[in-house]
Design brief:
Shape: globular
Number of strands: 16
Helix content: 25-40%
Structural class: alpha+beta
Order of helices and strands: HEEEHEEHHEEEEHEEHHHEHHEEEHHEH
CATH topology of the largest domain: BirA Bifunctional Protein, domain 2
CATH class of the largest domain: Alpha Beta
Strand order of the largest sheet: 6-10-11-16-15-14-13-12
Distance between the termini: 30 Å
Radius of gyration: 27 Å
RNA sequence: UCCGGAGUAGCUCAGUCGGUAGAGCAGGCGGCUGUUAACCGCCGGGUCAGGGGUUCGAGUCCCUUCUCCGGAGCCA
């Protein structure tokens, strides 16, 4: 059994003096002189660094002197008030155990590295202040998401990662197969014989758990999914990865209005948790990554979210006199520049844009009585643009079937989905939130590759 | 995928007019100091992204390939 340790985040809360404190962690730096050696220790439990003071009388002092940045050590000693500036307490070591020395070519230095470089050492970058903070925030927010839904009686549904549905137009899919790519079995006509594949049909990684989620909402009431999602798009941007996490709640007996109300409460719950439980990390982001972050998050937390139909949003954008790279008109997809101008300049706070033209939205969204729009909603927030996309779902069998056919999808493939509209269909609605986009918003980090531990992007699947 | 920018030591970068490859940090050795991005001295460290071309001579100019970054599209 290993000797016990106290996490540094807790040690820094203690009132010195405290005898027999034991910590373990990794060295950020070593400063040595004849009379005394200083170690700075971090263990990932917080941003905090514990200064360890080592007296030359320790038996292994020569080895301690030669410790390198990145080395793992355990220290036993007395926590005392620090006589010098820079820290309030320090650990006077009575024993320093060298657990794992970092070799001389340890790539992290006591200076600023580019995020670009740190991405190439994703297995080590969690030892830096920024990434440590990012992944602590990520963990807290994941927990907060579960708390929000569980507290409201939602059921957490594990929707499948492997799927046979040919998407809903949500992008390119990764194929899942056990066939030998060099010599796949062929049909008499010379095509690949998918009947011989593992699932006896073509299979893919999921692009969304929504359709499966809907079937559970129609039966279990309020549900949510929270899991990985895959897109094989050749997207090379700071906002796209091939593997990411999504949260998709789905609520029975809900309309678009109810959907917005829940989404607003959801976002505010997450921001409140962030500001309360990750105060130190948020302060770091505010100071080092994105000045004004805290104020922006507080502003959103305290503002009632606006609700506005797409038609009105288009009118307001047209009337603004602002010139855009892409023109605004009814029927056009709102571009990122439009979304941001709307929420930042015209409204000045988050806004739900609702009721989009049916041509630019997915087949499962509920047709409005006007015949030309669907009950869709996007939540736009300052600085980021779209954070949430959702809709009231089409619960009428005939209308859904027609929408499916108009989209060119085969009703046979969606027979199970259509069934829910034949057996006790109900009005229902839901939305999707990209977890990494949320973390970017919460931390001010500009690149999605820096908020997921091991990002998968085109040509990148290391680690 | 399209447009733009970039690629020089382990990292961050400089490199003039085309003329023997540089600094800081990191590493090793030594010194010094209750230090704190510690400091001082010495030392090791390079396929200048790859290939081709122009030239007496290319990190530098030209062509090309690759990679990365940013923006766009797609979207979350």
């Amino acid at each position: 059994m290993q000797s016990p340790r106290t996490r540094i985040v807790e040690v820094l809360q203690l009132q010195p003096p405290c005898a027999e404190v034991r910590v373990k962690g990794w060295l950020r730096t070593v400063r040595d002189s004849k009379q005394v050696v200083f170690l700075e220790l971090n263990d990932g439990s917080s941003m905090g660094i514990l200064q360890v003071v080592v007296d030359p009388s320790l038996p292994n002092i020569e080895d301690v002197r030669r410790l390198t940045t990145g080395s793992a050590v355990g220290v036993r000693g007395e926590l005392v008030p620090s006589p010098a500036k820079g820290q309030t307490v320090e650990l006077r070591a009575t024993e320093v155990e060298i657990i794992g020395r970092a070799e001389a070519d340890f790539p992290l230095q006591k200076k600023r590295h580019s995020f670009e470089f740190l991405r190439t050492i994703a297995h080590l970058r969690n030892r830096t202040n920024t990434y440590g903070a990012v992944f602590r925030v990520r963990s807290k927010l994941a927990h907060a998401i579960h708390c929000f839904f569980q507290d409201r009686g939602f059921v957490y549904v594990h929707t499948p990662i492997i799927t046979a549905s040919d998407a809903e137009g949500a992008g390119e899919m990764f194929r899942v197969t056990t066939l030998d790519p060099a010599a796949p079995p062929k049909t008499p006509e010379g095509r690949i014989d998918w009947d011989a594949d593992f699932f006896a049909r073509q299979a893919y990684l999921t692009v969304s758990g929504q359709l499966n989620g809907e079937t559970f909402a129609i039966g279990m009431g309020d549900i949510y999914t929270f899991g990985p999602t895959f897109r094989a798009e050749n997207s090379n941007t700071s906002r796209h990865v091939a593997e990411f996490w999504m949260i998709e709640p789905e609520m029975a007996f809900f309309d678009l209005d109810d959907n917005c109300t829940l989404a607003e409460a959801f976002v505010k719950h997450l921001l409140r948790t962030l500001l309360e439980d990750c105060a130190e990390d948020v302060a770091f982001f505010d100071e080092r990554i994105d000045k004004g972050l805290t104020a922006r998050l507080r502003h959103v937390l305290e503002s009632p979210f606006e609700r506005m139909p797409y038609a009105e949003a288009v009118k307001r954008l047209e009337a603004s006199g602002q010139s855009f790279e892409y023109p605004v008109f009814f029927g056009a997809n709102l571009q990122a520049e439009h979304e941001r101008f709307l929420t930042e300049t015209i409204i000045g706070r988050p806004v739900f844009v609702t009721d989009y033209p049916k041509e630019i939205k997915a087949f499962y969204m509920r047709r409005n009585d006007d015949g030309r729009t669907v009950a869709a909603v996007d939540l736009l927030v300052p600085q980021v643009g779209e954070l949430i996309g959702g809709s009231q779902r089409e619960e009428r069998y005939d209308v859904l079937l027609q929408a499916l056919e108009e989209t060119g999808l085969s009703p046979q493939s969606y027979a199970w989905y259509l069934d829910t509209r034949r057996y006790g269909t109900v009005p229902h609605a839901g939305f999707g939130l990209g977890f990494e986009r949320l973390i970017m918003y919460a931390t001010g980090m500009q690149n999605i590759r820096d908020v997921i531990p091991f990002p998968r992007t085109p040509r990148h699947c290391e680690f």
